[in-house]
Specification:
heterodimer; A: mainly alpha; MetI-like fold; globular; B: alpha+beta; Rossmann fold; 2 domains; six-stranded mixed β-sheet; four-stranded antiparallel β-sheet; 8 helices; disordered N terminus; disordered C terminus
């Protein structure tokens, strides 16, 4: 028995070392750092209690980033899931060029976001961007979509939805193909309309997928900020500032590591709460086979 | 009010005329013309790939024929959507909705058609008690055994109160004991409700025990339409002769017989294994194998001249062990089924078929 435990511990050791060194230790260190000041020059770090947290609550940019992130999440999560479902249903049917369509929808996923964000910058460019040309044709006045505070956040939201909806579609497509044809046929014999069948059969059977995707979309809403670097750098006037981008600025541009650690603790806490909440809330309404 | 214990449905006779279903690379059904009379239990029987399931799907409206017409009570329904054909169907996989309870599954059709709540409840109560599902109504399909799921699928067909019920190999997922029970149950249900049943199977035991009449199919064509007894006693061609009966009928080429007499050249003589007796005055035969079955044993013999040896199975009582050699086989003339070189039965005049043959 003892030997078994010894072997088990030895086998676990490599993974445990990596996990502790690169995940658990930094996480714990982050929490500790958030209660200490940032060491600067000859001044070593000192314990400051909740000073960093009080500073955070008074920080207008942090509050702006939080409310931006809330809007950003509230838009990207439902929009990308709804778009993914619509695309999956569309390309599941028997239509010409189905393989080509599926590939087109999936393309944004395989392209690096940094690269395509650059292309999107051109789409949004005032004067001769794609959207501007359409507006011009309709006789509307030119807009600087990513350069004005009123629209910058929505411009980066569109890019985010576009980049992840195709990936989500693959999951819906797989789930749709798991629903046996005989269910549709049995419903057809009863005279079930397509909408009724979707509402009463397809949608409930897709619930596990929807839960999985909404958790992923939530995490992405806080985690994916690649396009912010390329498109807006959080501006103008912090209009498109998101929490993670703010953490990057504080931590790696201003080297205020203690405050960055404080912000990180908040972000991890938000993600943990959202993730747990979704599982417990939606678990009751979900059918697992 | 809708479901009574006496046969109520006089409607529901199905007529198929020249049905054809062609796929891009193959023809699943060709020139199928059959009557499936109302209130009777019809079985579509054939080996896998013979087109019987395709035919059922055409009747249900889940697939469209490339040629031919389907009538119910002289009304053409070929182009109608499934929901307007006034029929119910039990699928091989049962097609139960996994996220709905048994009660919701059974009531799915009624609630889609917006039948009043009170009537839904009344019909559910009656059907559930008829099928022995009353205690299971709150369960999910995954919490039921295979036999119970089968009952739910049946209940869903019965509650629709439609005169025609189609079944696509409904018992193939059950174990042997349950299958025997369900055979009796489905047959009793059909007779009690006076349903026009169209039942697809590849299992001849199911077909023989349940059917009023059997449509034997092979390679997309109807081989014979007859009652189980008629099918066994007067197979219309060599395919039906070999397909119906376990072990299959022995087919002996005329060339192998010592005295062909009036038998047609190039034809076959069919003799059921149970019709052959060991008789020293008969055809000399060499014993090549014995399969012991308990009450009986199946003895495999070889007969005929050396260049035309043919294997013949004989069912003999198992009480006596068979000696190794010195055998001879005989059979009464009345047990002979004579088939022409084209495989069609020639002795049809001696025992006329009750139903017109479409072979």
């Amino acid at each position: 028995m003892h030997r078994d435990w010894g072997h088990a511990a030895l086998l676990l050791l490599p993974a445990m070392v990596l996990l502790f060194a690169f995940t658990h230790m930094p996480a714990i260190q982050t929490v500790i750092d958030s209660f200490w000041s940032t060491p600067r020059g000859r001044r070593p770090s000192v314990f400051v209690g909740d000073a960093n947290y009080r500073r955070m609550l008074a920080d207008p940019i942090f509050l702006k980033a939080m409310s931006n992130n809330a809007v950003y999440a509230a838009l990207t999560i439902p929009a990308s899931i709804a778009l993914a479902l619509a695309m999956a249903i569309f390309v599941q049917g028997r239509i010409a060029g189905r393989a080509f369509l599926r590939m087109s929808y999936f393309t944004p996923t395989v392209l690096p976001l940094i690269a395509v964000a650059n292309i999107w910058v051109f789409f949004f460019l005032p004067g001769f961007g794609l959207f501007e040309q359409i507006r011009e044709a309709l006789g509307l006045s030119p807009q600087n979509w990513i350069g004005q505070p009123a629209t910058a956040l929505y411009a980066v939201t569109v890019v985010s939805v576009w980049s992840q909806a195709g990936f989500f579609m693959i999951f819906y497509l797989a789930a749709l193909q798991n629903i046996p044809d005989s269910l549709r046929e049995a419903a057809a014999l009863e005279g079930t309309s397509r909408w009724t069948f979707f509402r009463r059969v397809t949608w409930p059977l897709l619930m596990p997928t929807t839960l999985f995707l909404s958790v992923n979309a939530t995490i992405n809403a806080f985690r994916t900020v690649d396009h912010i670097f390329v498109m807006t750098q959080g501006g103008p006037n912090n209009a498109s500032m998101l929490l993670l981008y703010y953490i990057y600025e504080i931590g790696f541009r201003f080297w205020d590591t203690a405050y960055a650690a404080t912000l990180t603790v908040v972000m991890v806490a938000i993600l943990a709460i959202v993730g747990l909440g979704q599982f417990f809330l939606m678990d009751r309404r979900i059918h697992y086979k | 009010m809708h479901i009574t214990s006496s046969p109520t449905h006089s409607a529901g006779g199905i007529t198929l005329r020249g049905l054809q279903r062609r796929f891009e690379t193959s023809t699943a059904l060709d020139d199928v013309s059959v009557n499936l009379p109302s209130g009777r239990f019809s079985v579509l029987l054939g080996p896998s790939g013979c087109g019987k399931s395709t035919l059922l799907r055409l009747i249900a409206g889940l697939d469209t024929p490339t040629a031919g017409q389907i009538y119910v009570d002289q009304t053409e329904i070929t182009a109608l959507p499934p929901s307007q054909r006034n029929l119910s169907m039990v699928f091989q996989s049962y097609a139960l909705f996994p996220h709905l309870s048994v009660a919701e599954n059974i009531l799915f059709g009624l609630s889609v058609r917006r039948v009043a709540r009170a009537e839904q409840q009344a019909r559910l109560d009656r059907v559930a008690s008829m099928m022995g599902l009353t205690d299971l109504l709150a369960r999910r399909p995954a919490q039921l055994s295979g036999g119970q799921q089968q009952r739910v699928a049946l209940a869903r067909a019965v509650i629709s109160d439609r005169p025609i019920c189609l079944m696509d190999e409904p018992l193939s997922n059950l174990d042997a004991k349950l299958r025997a029970e369900m055979r009796v149950e489905i047959r009793a249900l059909q007779q009690r409700l006076g349903l026009t049943m169209v039942y697809v199977t590849h299992d001849q035991v199911e077909a023989m025990t349940m059917a009023d009449h059997i449509v034997v199919m092979n390679q997309g064509r109807v081989q014979q339409v007859a009652s189980p007894r008629d099918l066994y006693e007067n197979p219309a061609n060599t395919f039906v002769a070999r397909f119906i009966g376990t072990p299959p009928m022995n087919l002996i080429p005329v060339a192998c017989l010592a005295e062909p007499g009036a038998l047609p050249e190039g034809g076959m003589v069919g003799i059921r294994p149970e019709d052959i007796v060991l008789d020293p005055k008969g055809l000399p035969a060499r014993l090549v194998g014995v399969e012991y079955l308990g009450a009986d044993q199946l003895a495999a013999f070889e007969i005929g001249p050396d260049d035309h040896r043919v294997r013949v199975l004989v069912r003999v009582p198992a009480r006596h062990a068979l000696p190794a050699d010195g055998h001879a086989l005989a059979w009464p003339d009345s047990a002979e089924h004579v088939f022409g070189p084209d495989g069609l039965r020639l002795s049809a005049l001696l025992s006329p078929l009750k139903e017109p043959s479409h072979a």
